[in-house]
Design goal:
Order of helices and strands: EEEEEEEEEEE
Structural class: mainly beta
Radius of gyration: 13 Å
């Protein structure tokens, strides 16, 4: 099993920045990708970003490209999502995931892992 603990959400004004963290523990050797989805009220969960754990390859949703950056600290088993130029439409609960698949095009499945979610609210 892998446990994920998220932190870093909060309330920020439009144009501001936040950094989310996702710390993994447990059987982390089974994890090959980490990333984030988000879910706004009344909407489906939306892919945001993903990173290959053994390399530097990343992929982003078009809605956040150029504003959000995903990075990792392998020694700390932690992934980060730096969010700049935040907009009110970025308001959502952000969920990190850790997946066994090594593909940046993977969609986390039942055998993968999720964090508890952290609220990000951007005021206009």
């Amino acid at each position: 099993q892998v446990q994920l603990v998220e932190s870093g959400g909060g309330l920020v004004q439009a144009g501001g920045s936040l950094r989310l963290s996702c710390a993994a523990s447990g059987r982390t050797f089974s994890v090959h990708t980490m990333g984030w989805f988000r879910q706004a009220p009344g909407k489906e969960r939306e892919f945001i970003a993903i990173i290959i754990w053994s390399g530097v390859t990343t992929r982003y949703a078009d809605s956040v490209k150029g504003r959000f950056t995903i990075t990792k600290d392998s020694a700390q088993n932690t992934a980060y999502l730096q969010m700049n130029s935040l907009r009110p439409e970025d308001t959502a609960v952000y969920y990190c995931f850790a997946a066994k698949s090594g593909s940046i095009f993977t969609t986390p499945g039942r055998d993968d892992y999720w964090g508890q979610g952290t609220q990000v609210t951007v005021s206009s």
